[in-house]
Amino acid sequence: MEARIRCSPAPCADALSIARDLDPGLRPVVLESRWRHPELGRWDIVAFGPSCLLRAGPTGAELLEPAGTHQLSTDALTSLQQLMRARRIRRPAGCGLPFIGGSVGVMAYELARQLERLPGNARDDLGLPWLEWACYERAWLCDRVAGRAWWLQVEAPWCAPDWRVPRPTPGTAPEPGQVVSPGLFSTFNREQYLRAVCEVQDWIRRGHIYQANLSQRFAVPFEGSAHTLYARLRGLQPMPFLAWLPLGGAQILSASPERFLKVGPRGHVQTWPIKGTRGRHAEASIDADRARQLQESAKDQAELAMIVDLHRNDLGRVCAYGSVRVQADAQLQSFPGVHHLTGHITGNLRPELDVFDLLRAAFPAGSISGAPKIRALEIIDSLEPLARSAYTGSLGYVGYDGCADLSVAIRTLIITRGWALLGAGGAVTADSQPCAEYQETLDKVAGLLSALHATREHASDS
User: Fold this and answer.
1) In the annotation, is 275 catalytic?
2) Could you say which of 32, 132, 258, 378 is catalytic?
3) Do 317 and 359 form a contact (C-beta atoms < 8 A)?
4) pTM of this structure
């Protein structure tokens, strides 16, 4: 039986409402945008009813199917690549949908340990998968620009409309860390974070790196509804890459401004790294002044230039010779809560390669690791006490046609075992001011904390 794709008109509704009305046993996942941008904010996708699930971690990979669970001998990315190649579907002529069925999921930051030789010093206190992707043959897609929506269904031999994914293990309870303020914990206190910034700068002075993205993980007790929290998060943080999907026994709620990798139907690749941050201000004149300061900052311009060059080199490892181009190297993007500088690099994948070869060349994103990347990853691992898990990994979809759209999992919450975990970091360079770097992490989590506090207050009032 040859795979077929069927589309029918659907209501142009709210993605979260569509997901909420589905049977939870169908494991619905939400990928949406509330950002008005022709490239970064057009499509909403709700996929449901997967036919299989691939889960991998430090001890190996397993494929869950209706017939049972199979242990795999290959690494996580190779396993997913082989699965997707076996289910390859030709994109119908004239099809304008970004997703025609395929896999949706999360790649944790620690997946890098399977791509590079890294020391692995940071403790993994959560016990969550390093990779978890499910194959979906049914989806609701809405084009916000055109104001139209469709139900999508793939008819293929592997479809399993009545299958329910077995309940995952819940993972382990997180180590909350040290008290920052009442009800807020972190892997660092302020003084420890400042010292860690200085240690990164010492590595820079010794010639090992040019910059590294040092992060801390905040923890907030949370026993509320992930659905309610996500609804508030997307309202307070209407970012380009919003997502709600499971990872093992945890829930991942993301409001990311950053596209990691997009692969189009003919192998055209895009990446949009972010570097440079200023907190927003309610007074328009002060806010505009902060945006201007960011644009004129030599330090922030240098941060972004290093990462644009790193992303360009990563794409150059798998793209056709001469096809990699820097389309923009310092654009101002103003999001809720923060101003950022962004770059835009494009290229064309070599015909014999696919998105998984691209991921091997580029994961994790340079914007959340550093330059040179491998040495920065090693230094980060020596300074951050706990594994990042989904934070600064990547999430999104890889379609059966080879198309893909993946965000960097920043501004991302991990809801697990009665806690909400949220990470934040910034690029440390030779010119960094440790106090300013610490404040930047607080600016970045302010929107997530607002959503958490509003959800908890609502729960206590009801």
Assistant:
1) yes
2) 258
3) no
4) 0.96
